[in-house]
Amino acid sequence: DTAADDYRAAVSRKAAELRLIDDARELLAAERARATYSPPPVLALPRLIADTAAEVVRWRFQGLAEVGDRLLIEAAAKTGKSTLMGNLVGALVTGDPLLDTFATEAIPPGSVVLYVDTELGPRKLARWLADVVPADVRDRVAVWSIAGRAGSLDVRDDGTRARMVDQIGGA
Questions:
Q1: How far apart are CA 87 and CA 129, in angstroms?
Q2: Can you tell me the distance from the alpha carbon of 83 to that of 138, in angstroms, rounded to the nearest whole number?
Q3: Where are the beta strands (DSSP E) in 68-126?
Q4: Cα 145 to Cα 160: distance, rounded to the nearest angstrom
Q5: Which residues of the chain have pLDDT under 50?
Q6: Interatomic CA distance for residues 117 and 122, integer angstroms
Q7: CB contact at 8 A, 147 and 119
Q8: CA distances from 113 to 65, 90, 118 (A)
Q9: What's the pLDDT tens digit per position in 23-52?
Q10: Half-sphere CA count of 69, side-chain side, radius 13 A
């Protein structure tokens, strides 16, 4: 069938054009990133220590993480990652010691913890968090469940990042 063959050929050409556009966007984004990259200085350890010695450490979780730190929780399946995350969220909003052990500086009043779920899904996450976050502070926790969809989020893409910011900003 000539019409069907023509259609398939047109679809293939259009798909190739769209792939070309995607590749061009990636190339342009990489060029822009290289143009704006400003590497931090390399410091000898004695200078780094001297430069930071007077800084006062504010602990979010005493002895574990400072205010402003980023944490990555990674472990094998069924080792308690979700339970730990729920306890972290609860401690952040209440100021109760993390795991009844580590003094915790709560987030400021009016602030919200954003929990980005890439694993459990909404129903299971709701059950986990309901067990560890007290009812009176649950309005200080926002949940973004992207389980099963995290791989499709290309944070290198300006448009994707802008949509993520818009969506998260409403939480």
A1: 8
A2: 16
A3: 113-117
A4: 16
A5: none
A6: 8
A7: yes
A8: 16, 9, 16
A9: 999 899 888 888 888 888 999 999 999 998
A10: 15
pTM higher than 0.90: no
Asked if 164 and 150 touch (Cβ cutoff 8 Å), the reply is no
The span from the CA of 60 to the CA of 67, in Å, is: 5
d(CA 139, CA 93): 10
Distance CA 138, CA 142 (A): 8
Q: What is the DSSP letter of 96?
A: P
CA distance 109 to 15: 50
Q: Are strands 113-117 and 141-145 parallel, antiparallel or unpaired?
A: parallel
Strands, DSSP E only, in 12-151? 59-61, 65-66, 113-117, 141-145
